[in-house]
C-alpha cells in the first residue's frame, strides 16, 4: 500500500503522523511511504531521516494526497485540504466530527473512508489511540493553568502549590478519565488542593485508592459544581463522551459566581467543550476573558510539545496502521473490533451513530460495509 504523510497545517501544529522509525517499519513490510517535504521538522525529524528509512519525500501537499492510498495525519483536515481528498481514500487521523459540522459534511461529500483515532475503542471501553494525547493534554492543562494564574497573564496571582504560611490553589477537575487523572497527578504533585468530579462511583473509588491525600473525589452534578466553583482557582474540563459532543457542565451564568482571575482550561474543546463559553483558540492566541474569567481553549494542546507528542502518538497508532496497510481497511476492521469502532464515515455514509445524531444525518450501520461489500 502507498502511505502518505502530509505536513500538518493547522495553526501551530508541529506534530507529524509518522516518525522515521515508523516509516522504516512500513518499508520493511513491503509498503511505500511518501512524506511531504519538511513534514517532520516541527517534531525534530529531518527529511533525510525519512529518506534513510526508505521513504520518498514529495514537494507539496497536493502531491502527497494524490499519491497516498492511506493518508496518515494528526489533526483533522482543514478547509484547504477538503478538495484534495479522493473517493475511497483511507484517512487515518483525529477527526472529532461532532464538534464541527462543515468537516463532517465535507468528508461525506468526499466519499473517502474516515477512520478516527479518537473512536478506536477496545471491548473494555478503553481508547488506545486517544490515551497518549489525553495523557499529554491532562498534564499540559495543569502547566498552562498554573502559568495563567499569574497576574501578568490575567490570573488571580496565585502560586499553584502555595508556600509555608499560605494556602495552595484549589483545582477543580471535571471528569476522572485519562485527562482528569493525569491533571490530578500533576496538580497534586505541585502541592495544590484538588477535587475530581465524576459520575462513576467505581472510578472514584479507584482514584481515592491511588491518588495522594491532597486529591478528593465528589459526585459530578450541577449542585456540587455550583458549590465548588466560587472557591476554585483553576478549573479543568476533562469530560469525554466518545465520538459525541461534550455536555456543558459549566454554563455561562456560572461565570458570575467565580472570582475574577479564575482560570478555565477546557481540554474537551475538540469535542465542543464542556464549558459553555468555550470556543477553540490557538497557540498563537490561546486565551480570552469573559466576566473576568480567563479561558484557555487551545484545540491542539499537545502540538506545543511535538517531540513528546509525536513519539507517544505513533507508539500507539503504528501497529494499527501496519494492519490497515497489510489487510486493507475492511479486513482489518473485521479482524480488530477496536478498528471497526473507529470507522466514522464510509463512502458518503455516516456509520458512527453519535455523529449522525449530532447533525441529524442519515445513519448507516458499519456492518453494511463490512458484511455486504
- Put simply, the count of helices is 13
Number-wise, the strands total 15
Uncertain spans: none
Describe the global form: globular
Q: What is the CATH top level name of the largest domain?
A: Alpha Beta
CATH architecture level-2 label of the largest domain: 3-Layer(aba) Sandwich
How many domains make up the 3D coordinates? 2
Helix content: 25-40%
Could you tell me the mean pLDDT?
A: 95
The CATH homologous superfamily of the largest domain is called: NAD(P)-binding Rossmann-like Domain
Distance between the termini: 20 Å
Structural class: alpha/beta
Largest sheet: 8 strands, mixed
Strand content: 15-25%
| Topology pattern, helix = H, strand = E | EHEHEHEHEHEHEHEHEHEEEEHHEEHH
Detailed description of the structure:
There is one protein chain. The protein is of the alpha/beta class and 373 residues long. The chain has helices at 20-28, 47-52, 61-67, 79-82, 101-110, 131-148, 178-189, 201-210, 222-228, 306-335, 337-342, 353-359, 367-372; strands at 2-5, 32-36, 56-58, 70-72, 90-93, 113-116, 170-174, 193-198, 215-219, 234-237, 263-266, 287-290, 293-296, 343-346, 349-350. It has two domains: 2-112 and 306-372, 3-Layer(aba) Sandwich (Rossmann fold), CATH 3.40.50.720; 131-304, 3-Layer(aba) Sandwich (Rossmann fold). The strands form two sheets. An eight-stranded mixed sheet has the order 3-2-1-4-5-6-14-15, with helices on both faces. Strands 9-8-7-10-11-13-12 form a seven-stranded mixed sheet, sandwiched between helices. Helix 1 links the parallel strand 1 (2-5) and strand 2. The model has no long low-confidence stretch (mean pLDDT 95). GO terms for molecular function: alanine dehydrogenase activity. Its EC number is 1.4.1.1. InterPro entries: Ala_DH, Ala_DH/PNT_CS2, AlaDH/PNT_N, AlaDH/PNT_NAD(H)-bd, NAD(P)-bd_dom_sf. It comes from Cyclobacterium plantarum.
Amino acid at each position: 500500500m502507498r502511505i502518505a504523510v502530509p505536513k500538518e497545517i493547522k495553526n501551530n501544529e508541529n506534530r507529524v503522523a509518522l516518525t522515521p522509525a515508523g516509516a522504516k517499519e512500513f518499508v520493511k513490510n513491503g509498503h511505500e511511504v511518501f512524506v511531504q517535504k519538511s513534514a517532520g521538522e516541527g517534531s525534530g525529524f529531518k527529511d533525510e531521516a525519512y529518506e534513510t528509512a526508505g521513504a520518498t519525500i514529495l514537494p507539496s501537499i497536493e502531491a502527497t494526497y494524490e499519491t497516498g492510498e492511506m493518508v496518515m495525519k494528526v489533526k483533522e483536515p482543514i478547509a484547504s485540504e477538503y478538495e484534495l481528498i479522493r473517493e475511497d481514500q483511507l484517512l487515518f487521523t483525529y477527526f472529532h466530527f461532532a464538534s464541527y459540522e462543515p468537516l463532517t459534511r465535507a468528508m461525506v461529500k468526499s466519499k473517502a473512508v474516515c477512520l478516527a483515532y479518537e473512536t478506536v475503542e477496545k471491548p473494555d471501553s478503553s481508547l488506545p489511540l486517544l490515551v497518549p494525547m489525553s495523557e499529554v493534554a491532562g498534564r499540559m492543562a495543569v502547566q498552562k493553568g498554573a502559568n495563567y494564574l499569574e497576574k501578568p497573564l490575567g490570573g488571580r496571582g496565585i502560586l499553584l502549590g502555595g508556600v509555608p504560611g499560605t494556602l495552595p490553589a484549589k483545582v477543580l477537575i471535571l471528569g476522572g478519565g485519562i485527562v482528569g487523572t493525569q491533571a490530578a497527578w500533576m496538580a497534586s504533585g505541585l502541592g495544590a488542593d484538588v477535587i475530581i468530579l465524576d459520575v462513576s462511583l467505581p472510578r472514584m473509588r479507584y482514584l481515592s485508592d491511588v491518588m495522594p491525600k491532597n486529591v478528593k473525589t465528589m459526585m459530578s452534578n450541577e449542585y456540587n459544581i455550583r458549590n465548588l466553583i466560587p472557591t476554585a482557582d483553576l478549573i479543568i474540563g476533562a469530560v469525554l463522551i466518545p465520538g459525541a459532543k461534550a455536555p456543558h457542565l459549566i454554563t455561562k451564568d456560572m461565570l458570575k459566581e467565580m472570582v475574577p482571575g479564575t482560570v478555565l482550561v477546557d481540554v474537551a474543546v475538540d469535542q465542543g467543550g464542556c464549558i459553555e463559553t468555550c470556543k477553540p483558540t490557538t497557540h498563537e492566541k490561546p486565551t480570552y476573558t469573559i466576566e473576568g474569567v480567563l479561558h484557555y481553549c487551545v484545540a491542539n494542546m499537545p502540538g506545543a510539545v511535538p517531540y513528546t507528542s509525536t513519539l507517544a502518538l505513533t507508539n500507539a497508532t503504528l501497529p494499527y496502521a501496519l494492519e490497515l496497510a497489510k489487510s486493507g481497511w475492511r479486513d482489518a476492521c473485521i479482524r480488530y473490533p477496536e478498528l471497526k469502532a473507529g470507522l466514522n464515515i464510509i463512502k458518503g455514509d455516516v456509520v458512527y451513530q453519535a455523529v449522525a445524531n449530532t447533525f441529524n444525518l442519515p445513519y448507516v450501520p458499519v456492518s453494511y460495509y463490512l458484511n455486504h461489500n
